[in-house]
Structure to design on (215 residues):
């Protein structure tokens, strides 16, 4: 008999806790969470945070993925709303063992195509951008934005296997990778952030790419 789902999740968690080596049977979905952390952080107080303007993505995608892969039972009450210059929603979970798992995940590099796929989609769902009204917008774009330039260098290396002439630019406060048609083709139609997927499909339609193609 195979291991139950919960036992697999526990074994995965224990492996991250007890080993410095890459876990051979690790679920590639882990790299989606790594990408999603590009709009989040691990604090010094053992708190894990995922931020986003769309609450549904946190509730319907991030929480279930964490619960599924780490045998925890996080609920919606760990989602908060923050009113600042740019209001947003965020997940905040204080759990030392879970924090240690995510700290190890953050140090892993997606190697094969499937791992890279999940990472790119997670990165896009968290921190990708495109015009909300591509018909009225004079310059259409697809971009990934980050304050951490190294993360964009790593992403650029992954994307350049299928997307040409990518460049990293800066506006003095953040770095970004921007591209149009080739980037849409590289981004999967499997995006889990429904609001962002709708925005991307509007750009694709305007550029006469009827829908993003699968990776």
């Amino acid at each position: 008999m195979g291991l139950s789902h919960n036992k697999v999740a526990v074994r995965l968690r224990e492996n991250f806790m007890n080993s410095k080596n890459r876990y051979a049977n690790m679920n590639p979905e882990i790299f989606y969470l790594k990408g999603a952390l590009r709009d989040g952080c691990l604090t010094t107080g053992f708190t894990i945070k995922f931020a986003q303007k769309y609450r549904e993505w946190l509730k319907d995608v991030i929480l279930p993925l964490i619960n599924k892969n780490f045998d925890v039972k996080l609920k919606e009450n760990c989602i908060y709303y923050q009113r600042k210059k740019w209001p947003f929603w965020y997940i905040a979970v204080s759990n030392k063992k879970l924090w240690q798992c995510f700290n190890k995940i953050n140090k892993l590099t997606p190697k094969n195509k499937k791992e890279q796929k999940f990472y790119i989609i997670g990165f896009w769902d968290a921190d990708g951008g495109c015009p909300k009204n591509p018909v009225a917008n004079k310059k259409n774009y697809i971009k990934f934005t980050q304050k951490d330039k190294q993360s964009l260098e790593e992403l650029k290396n992954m994307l350049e296997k299928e997307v040409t002439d990518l460049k990293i630019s800066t506006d003095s406060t953040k770095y970004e990778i921007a591209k149009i048609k080739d980037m849409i083709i590289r981004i999967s139609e499997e995006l889990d952030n429904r609001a962002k997927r709708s925005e991307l499909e509007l750009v694709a339609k305007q550029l006469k790419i009827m829908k993003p193609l699968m990776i």
